[in-house]
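Fold this sequence, please.
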Amino acid sequence: MAVPWQDLGLARFRVLVDGVMHAWAPDGSASPEEALAEIPTVEYPDGPLDVAQGSSVDLRLLARVLLPTLRDHRLATMLGQYDIGTDDEDPKTIVRLLEALLGDALAVDRQVLALLGQLVPSPLAEILQRALLLAEPASGPMEPPEEAAAVGGGGWAGLLDEALDPEGPLAGAFEAFELRTGQVEMARAVDHAFTDGETLLVEAGPGTGKTFAYLIPAILLLKRQPGTRVAISTRTKQLQEQLFRKDLPFLVERMAPRLNVALLKGRENYLCLRRWQALIDETTGSLDRKGLAALAPLVRWIAETETGDIEENGAFHSDPRSRALWGRLCDAPNHCVGSFCPFQEDCFSILARRRARRADLLVVNHSLLLGDLSVEGVVLGSYSHLIVDEGHGFEAAARIAFTDSLSERSVARVTEDLAASSRRRRGWVERLSLASGRDDIQRVIEIVSSVRSRAEVLLREMDAALPREQRGAFESFGEQGASVDDLLTSLAQLEQALDRLTEHIEDDLQTKELEGHITMVGYLQRVVRRLSEPPTENAVHWYERIRGELSLHATPLDIAPLFRKMLYPRVDGLVLTSATLSVAGEFGFLRRALGLSGDDEPVGELVVDSPFAHHDRMRIFVPGYLPRIDGAPGEYATELAELLATLVRELDRKGLVLFTSYRLLNAVRDALPPDVARVCQGSDGPRSKLIEQFRAHRGGKLLLGTESFWEGVDFPGEELEFLVVTRLPFPVPTDPILVALGERIAAEGSDPFFDLSLPLAVLKLRQGVGRLIRTQEDSGIVVITDQRIITRSYGARFKDSLPVQPHIALSADALLADIARWWHGAR
């Protein structure tokens, strides 16, 4: 849409984009200098908007508020969105981008544009306010999408063999269909488990096609047995989105077009319209310009989104100031006022749960699934069959789901909502407008301050009393008994003071809000009491310090009884799958952890090997000449840095280096020569930025990463061609949960190392090595620099779990020669 520059009154302007200042004017001057020096001020009826001096139009901010769902807002991405040439040195490119963005602004709903004009800073505010005068009235609300119909339909018999046949309905949708014997084997096993009502553990290596191997039998089950309901749970939201946005639409369209499928996340992922309105009113009333700008990327998105799922809004996530506000905007049980909410009919969270309850096939994540178990299924409803993908993380997810925590942050979430500690905002009690009860309101405000200060005292005393380690176990609040009593007294007083407000509140909505606040205060009391007593036999109390803040936790140890009580009796068929479930082909570790002994019901096991030709596409090397990892401090890091520099220079390819601690990562980073291109977790930005920079680079470069890079990242082809494992990934031996689990195992007569630490390390090593080969065309090398894999007896367990056996190199020259020989020869 062409921009009427004269009507907007843009005489000349400066544009800030990606940190570079550009200048331009509508008549097409040849350079930024000419734009500023030669263009006269033009007379417009409303006066010219001349931003050539002093201020600038921030194109990135304009794009973030107009295109909030764009994956990122770099210049190249914005140019691609509008199919504009990528020559960002040409001023015409920048002006074309601004023209396109302003054209978008003129097409935005007038109410949205008006609110944006209030939120963004000058001069964008003035530009959008002028655009408002030119914008066309909105054409009316969009028609809601049609609801999917019930299970049924499909023009074929719906047999598994037919679905997987090379001449079948699915194969025809691929340009080059490839029959995968492992995928067929897994699909048949899943279909058998569903039909016979059994439990199945399936390890399916990369490239197996495990997603289709469980989705196809699930869809066929729903076709055969109307009224059956299947839930699929993933560990990460990324896989959850992939299933719902990509894999399921492809299969449902071809197998059961009328199948009702839904995605559901936890309530905190959805925007609350009532809280949004309250925050907008509060922020505009306080004239908090930074707060207003942080809210701006939500405005258009709220008007156009069908889901209210904040994951859609990349612009919001990209700004730390915006993300910090999400806790005051998201849906949450304690803030929900139910039927009293004026936005109930449009509530994103309610609509998502309604769709989920009606769905025949429901996609959730582990956190939501486990949370639903704790409330006896009131959110998801009943389901007859369950598929747990990324099952290797199911036990850890359960511990997190059933952990109670206390920290200054958790206390602040409750107290700040009631009465804010900052003058820039007001809490719920401070916003109350009552005909009576001012003394009771003031009483609540005073007690909230007391709760806040007494929690700070208790946590400060605990911080001083606990060892200085980052994580550790503790029994209970010991010498802090007086501070515990003070905090519990204040919490009880707060609960009573809030309850007294019911005498003055006549509004049903406010009464419901009050009930939520009382519930949260009650939760704090329960957590403090739990932590003040010694842990039960099946729990551990532990602490951690993150960026100087102390958190206290109470976590269950053995979660198998919880699964046996709350999950397994609810389902007729259960499938747990992942690329790494077994240790050397055996499932004993996972079965014990999840309480799948098989004594009551049969448990099937299946290992489906990856179809990738690892013996042809991968080599694993162990440099036998490197120092021991537990040797002289600094020597290992120095030698490792030298090896990494040599690999980058000689190979001129990109490598991922996996660490188990920031301490070693930082030591290696500091020892690397300056000419070695690298990005490092913890110092070069957030994980997403590191991934983006690494993928975009051409030539040799290192990505140094810790915990979050051992799994869940894909770098196909030339994006990753060598991987270095700097240490066998044993869990931290002093980890309080691991120590407590080890003590239980030892009490039962078993070996904590061989029955707990070693299996966990083997599974994690397999996840890490699995980052290298992600497609049929991938190839590369793995270098494991920890000598223990060849010098310790338990190293055989690691080697037996690797896709290929490692080669030992006795010198740096031998290592490079072996790599070159394979890379340019056998490969």
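The two ends are 53 Å apart (CA to CA). The chain has four domains: 5-134, 147-260+359-402+559-610, 438-555, 614-826.
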